[in-house]
Amino acid sequence: MMVNNDLSESIIFPKGNKVEGPLASVFTGDAWVEMLVTDEKFNCPVYNVTFEPRGRNNWHSHPGGQILLVTGGRGWYQEDGKPGRELKPGDVVKIPSNVKHWHGAAKDSWFTHLGITTNPEKGDAKWFETVTDEEYNKLDS
Amino acid sequence: MMVNNDLSESIIFPKGNKVEGPLASVFTGDAWVEMLVTDEKFNCPVYNVTFEPRGRNNWHSHPGGQILLVTGGRGWYQEDGKPGRELKPGDVVKIPSNVKHWHGAAKDSWFTHLGITTNPEKGDAKWFETVTDEEYNKLDS
Predict the structure, then answer these.
(1) Is B24 on the interface with A (CB under 8 A)?
(2) Whether the model pTM is above 0.90
């Protein structure tokens, strides 16, 4: 399979560090995260996330919701029980509170999005099971 | 002066409509705004703003602060009484509550940023005087 390894169009914001340690256990494949805004005065954590091809996070939910702003590559967003939504640069994903979902790269492309944790005072993300290869492969076949 | 009119690299998010009506009175030159997130549940208005070369907004402040995420072109951010900060894609500007400032394009480039109004429950932006040509021309000479 051809893979677009040219991230020159994708890297607008800093790529940051590869996810390692406990957080890596809720990813399939490699991902990189750069925190862009952490100051609590803003009450608005903002970060840049980059996934390698086939890279994705586990099913999870956010008590206060999340916004994704796609800046590079091609990827997927899926809510539990729904078909996947293909994502390209310029797409905006509005993830309601407590909706179980995952996001990640397409099979043949890197994928980069900004993320905003909304209403962060409502608590941290809740992490669930891995998105299996069987689930993932259905999306892009 | 050479002007980079190629916005193909800048338009990641929708350009939206040209600012008209009362809001146009607090801009110098033309600007375009697309609201990306307005749902009050997120408590996090997100928008894409595009300025033509030399386009800028008036001096203003935000009671709850604002975050800018630069996605295209070249521009400026300036806080009252401080030197201007040149902005390029990938730059993040964290604007504290009630700090008087302006942002806009460079003389020779279009400029596009995402904006996030943080702590929006604290109220709407307060608008002040125009950034004069004298103030503006000092930045990039």
Answers:
(1) no
(2) yes
